[in-house]
Write a structure and sequence with these properties.
mainly alpha; Helix Hairpins; binds adenosine-5'-triphosphate; nucleotide-binding; phospholipid metabolism; kinase; transmembrane helix; ATP binding
């Protein structure tokens, strides 16, 4: 049986006798760390890594600490003004929207840095800018929701009646 030499070439290219290192392995090597080569063995190890992820974002990202401080402030004011159940629901959605946006932004920044290895690339800049824009959109939505929810309470607290507060009360039915 004759063998086509092109087939042999193809086989050699398709099955190289060395294994290319993944980006994670290269980074681990640079940092003298152990690369994760296995999946999490059970639910509690997965949970541990997920909680570590939350902890790292809070430690690394100043903006995340700002979001959390703001969320605490909103919680205190909400308790003081006595929001009702459905108002709390909106507040929770609003606050988590911004926090979630910051998580995504952190992931995008880390992945971009990993891919370009912190070198300049116009696309890296574009991706980071768009990602930062996403956080601004999320924070804008948070602010709009909070203003709509808190405005009548704050106005009532200061004894102010405006068209806007009547309009919001009408919206609430
Ligand atoms: N590798 C890169 N190539 C080109 N431009 C970059 C690169 N990395 C960052 N930039 C530019 O610098 C800006 C700041 O990037 P950086 O990674 O410092 O984000 P950051 O200041 O931590 O953002 P944030 O405040 O949202 O956490 C980006 O929005 C982008 O315009």
């Amino acid at each position: 049986m004759t063998t086509d030499s092109r087939d042999n070439n193809f086989i050699q290219t398709a099955e190289p006798d060395y294994k290319e290192k993944s980006a994670v392995e290269k980074l681990a090597e640079q940092n003298n760390a152990k690369a994760p080569t296995q999946r999490n063995k059970n639910f509690f190890i997965s949970l541990y890594h997920a909680l570590k992820g939350i902890f790292l974002v809070v430690i690394r990202e100043r903006n995340m600490r700002f979001h959390l401080a703001f969320a605490f402030f909103v919680l205190v004011i909400g308790l003081y003004l006595g929001l009702n159940r459905s108002e709390w629901l909106w507040v929770v959605i609003a606050v988590f929207l911004a926090v979630y946006g910051e998580f995504l932004n952190t992931v995008v920044e880390a992945v971009v840095d990993l891919v370009v290895e912190r070198k300049y690339h116009p696309l890296a800049g574009l991706v980071k800018d768009v990602s930062a824009g996403m956080v601004i959109v999320a924070v804008t939505a948070e602010m709009l929701i909070l203003v709509i929810i808190f405005q009548p309470h704050v106005w009532h607290y200061f004894g102010i009646q405006t068209d806007l507060s009547r309009f919001v009360h009408r919206l609430k039915g």
